[in-house]
Amino acid sequence: MDDRVELLIVGGGVAAARAARTLRRRGFDGSILLVGDDPLPPYNRPPLSKELLLHDEPLPDDLLLAEPVAWYDRRAIDLRTDVAVISLDPGERLAGLSDGGIVRYERCLLATGAAPHRLPVPGADHAMLLRTAVDARRLRVAMDANPGAEVVVVGGGFIGLEVASALAVRGLHPTVVELGDVLWGGQLGSGLADWARDRLAAAGVSLRLGSAVTAVDADAAWVGDERLPAAFVVAGVGVAPRDELARAAGLAVDDGVVVDGAGRTSEPAIWAAGDVARIDGLRVEHWHAAREAGERAALSILGEAVPPVAVPWVFSELAGVTVDVFGIPAADDEARWLVPERLLAYRRRGRLVGLVGLGGAIAPETGRELVARGASEADVRGALAG
Q1: How does the average pLDDT of the chain come out, rounded?
Q2: Which residues contact 350 (CB under 8 A, 6 or more apart)?
Q3: Residues 74, 163 within the same domain
Q4: Which residues contact 140 (CB under 8 A, 6 or more apart)?
Q5: What's the pLDDT at 173?
Q6: pTM of the full structure
Q7: How far is CA 94 from the centre of its chain?
Q8: How many domains does the chain have?
């Protein structure tokens, strides 16, 4: 017999959990089925490249989870883990499950997230990836089994640098190989990249900029003809939205599922949120954006007023220093340190479009608000003084 639900949530990340929480908090008492292909209930991903790698003791599941396991029962949410939705029929409002089940839904939220890119080189399977809790625990085992070892990290973006920093703290000797000449692909400019380079060097992280890994072995990475010995290799070279299900169902897809600010897709009974969603032409692959998108989609499903999309906020950590990025700076923006090595402002045609705060230099809500209104330098300084 088919399952019948009022809302089917597809995906097991923070966007899914936040949508379910918001619905129940706003009084929705209809049936909710949350289906995720991860073995764990929805969990937060930021600790995977931070606390889970850094703590002396392995981080338990209950500190990762977006909600305690018992919460789903208390809120009458049918949670099914380790099961994938493999097909959607928007016309009939049917979903096929990997365990052979069929679900009839009234409305559906897609929160399928993103999948990490593999290196496009021979031996790519030797490189470890970091996207899931299973990935993180596998990496932690490798770290603990190879004290003091040389390790290669491919990719100088947020994940690659967080992993390299954690490796150095744990006493390993990481070398980051980055294709671009500037960290973070140049997006955050040379000023922040120069600070990061010096900070990483002091922490024991070596950098190879403007270099491409051409092959990976079980105990090395190759840059052209040069062999870089490594107890293991980690690749952090970006992700791709998991939009195959939506594409096969005929939804509008363009580097993610196309949605408006309320998460509505091209199908009237389907919403999308999180890393898989391209909101008003922009896809942001970070925890705060996913959480807030799940909340907005829930409000939209209920027919309530939906707040505007907030200025993006990315939280990272580099060699023991927190890094908060507000807005979406570009490589050609004018970048200026307002407080040396503490607060960096980005302007485009005279308007503030981004801020980077180091070591908690500015409160997140303040940083986002200042960027949202394109604040003047005086306003930013005033906010700091206050």
Answers
A1: 95
A2: none
A3: no
A4: 52, 53, 58
A5: 98
A6: 0.94
A7: 29
A8: 3
